[in-house]
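Good morning N.,

You mentioned wanting to compare the apo and holo forms, so I went ahead and generated the holo version with zinc ion. This is what I fed in:
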Amino acid sequence: MQAPCPKCGQPSDGGLCRSCLLNLMEPLSRPDLVEVTVCSVCGSKLVRGRWQISERSIEEMATDAACESLCIHKDLENPELTVNLSRRGATRYAARIGLRGTFKGLAVEESCEIPVRIKLTACDRCSRMAGKYFEATVQVRGSSTRPLSKGELDTCRNMALSMADSGHRSGDQLSFVQEIKEVKGGLDIVLGSSQLGRQLSRAIQERFGGKLVESSTLAGRKDGRDIYRTTALVRFPRLKKGDIVLFRGGMYTVSGFDGKRTMLLSLSGNRRKVMSDEDAEQVEVLGNRSESQKALVVAVDRDAVEIMDPESYQTAFAPRPQDFEVVPGEEIAVVRTAKGFVVLG
Ligand SMILES: [Zn+2]
Ligand SMILES: [Zn+2]
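and this is what came out, ligand included:
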């Protein structure tokens, strides 16, 4: 049923006509100003009170924020939005917004400009890092008879950096490495959170074995809660992965650690043994798999392999590991030890 529009008198389907409705409708609502808070050190962005790692540039963040601040009328059909950002100052931008669409069959076009302000500050993490904040120290130590190698120190260093990074990526603002100090006998790794300290010390012990001793002291109060500082000492064991040992009449390599226990694998690779802490302190170490050399096999019998010494070119004998199959003319991996050559199965 047709009735005149109460506003303009044109024919209408009841109530206001389409053009009067269109005049009343606001296709686009927007705030007067958009602010984006960005860390000037690491580029993180503050989103609803939480710092988030961002790979976006300041311009991209300003554009995103302008778009996110818009509210497009729900009855607008096929909306199309365009944004053009221009710089107005060191930390000021203007986002020129264009909107097209249709409303009850009528074309709608609207444009506006939104000022965007970038607030540069330091995020929680960067300000704590700058303030030398720390909660945990992981002390990595060898001993006088078992100094740590450069490779082991580098591994611990890299583990700390990558664990801190993944903790940060999963949202822990305190997951950072404050400092890595080379000290007598090892490393002191100073960390932003005690949780990271616990994770790192366990991961190092899992990888290299040895003993882990943790302690904590009350360092003060902050925001009404006690702040503890934890120290985790990881004392590397005498043995390391790949060591070749003589244990209960057989030759084994150290394959890994399970807490205080040392896992062994026979040279031929088919028998496993677990060695106690006490045995690990006393067992005879012949060498390490990492020192292996290639040697040519000259002859083979049931119990021994005759090889050519890769340095002196003299022939030498090595015990043949159980079930080790080899024929003359092949090259095999051997380790030179005080007890002669050892064949790696
Ligand atoms: Zn009307
Ligand atoms: Zn930051």
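The first helix runs from residue 18 to 24.

Happy to go through it together on a call whenever suits you.

Best,
F.
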